Amino acid sequence: MSGTSADGIDAVLITTEGEQSELLGSHHRPVPAPLRDKILAFRQSGPDELHRLATLDVQLAKEYASAVSALLDTAQLEAAAVTAIGCHGQTIRHHPEGDTPYTLQIGDPNRLAELTGITVVSDFRRRDMAAGGQGAPLVPAFHRARLVSAGVATAVVNIGGIANISLITADGDVAGWDTGPGNTLMDGWILQNQGAPFDRNGEWAASGTIIAPLLTALLQDPYFTMRPPKSTGPEYFHLDWLAANLSGDETSADVQCTLAALTVESLALTLAQQPIDVVRVCGGGARNTWLMQRLTDRLGETAVTTTEAIGVDPEWVEAWAFAWLAEQTLAGQPGNVPAVTGATGSRVLGGIFPA
């Protein structure tokens, strides 16, 4: 999995027996800065896009192959021991609305299969979109299968570049959607102002003060009140979107604090309306101490934990989700939840690229 922040590749090694799965190993491979710059440049249209896209597709496949190789070396396993690689790929554009909705993830699965000698399952999102869905979020099905306790109404909150929630009732019904920006605006702002890729533990945000008028203005964006199914991406929530609401007189730390509060408020406004017993947070945002504390404060008596509480490291949840989706594909089982994505029905997702 390489997410919207494009800062690294998460690889996990999963073994499954019946309904039980176990994490055997994990590896994080940072994305080289020049490659990350190329990825982020695709958030806006630019020159010579076809050539840039084709070469980036190949470069990413090589990076994914290196991540797989390092993971197997650490686990002391041969490629022949692995059934398949579930590869989400790098999202370049996600436009689920309009007359011609589309989503595009790259990282050539043909080359990945060739380089690793392992069957690859990829391109998970487009079949759901072809069936009338948003192509996202796809993780709620995995959350229901692996991250909830029977009879406990649970919200699983993934705070990656974009934040999404899965709402699983005590009876097992599931709903979910993208709530808006997770880390993407905070990451972009600290990179622009301090040259750092992310705000470690939310320390820079904690040094500032929430700018209440700015927070109010940002929350007035129509996306936050749009009814699901809905999904979004950094093509929508980017620094130009933020700049339209800035006067130029704000201190940079106060803006960072306000962006963290925007993530919290967009989540809290949704979660406070749901009959849930516990909130379990995963993704990079689970490591943001300031954000987690404020979310806990905002939700009052509702228990807020990370997925660590049920033995799943928050850092590896999303990569694990696409391993699970690959298992679903190979078994001929659906991977989407139509009530979440808006698709006309359940669909087997992804293409299979044999070794």
What are the key terms here?
Nucleotidyltransferase, domain 5, globular, three-stranded mixed beta sheet, five-stranded mixed beta sheet, alpha/beta, 355 residues, 2 domains
Structure explained in plain terms:
- By secondary structure, the chain is α/β, with parallel strands linked by helices.
- The chain has two domains: 8-135 and 316-353, ATPase, nucleotide binding domain (Nucleotidyltransferase, domain 5, 2-Layer Sandwich), CATH 3.30.420; 148-311, Nucleotidyltransferase, domain 5.
- 37% of the residues lie in helices and 20% in strands.
- The protein has a five-stranded mixed β-sheet, with helices on both faces.
- Strand 10 (278-282), helix 11 (289-298) and strand 11 form a beta-alpha-beta unit.
- Helix 6 packs antiparallel against helix 10 and helix 10 (252-271) packs across helix 11 (289-298).
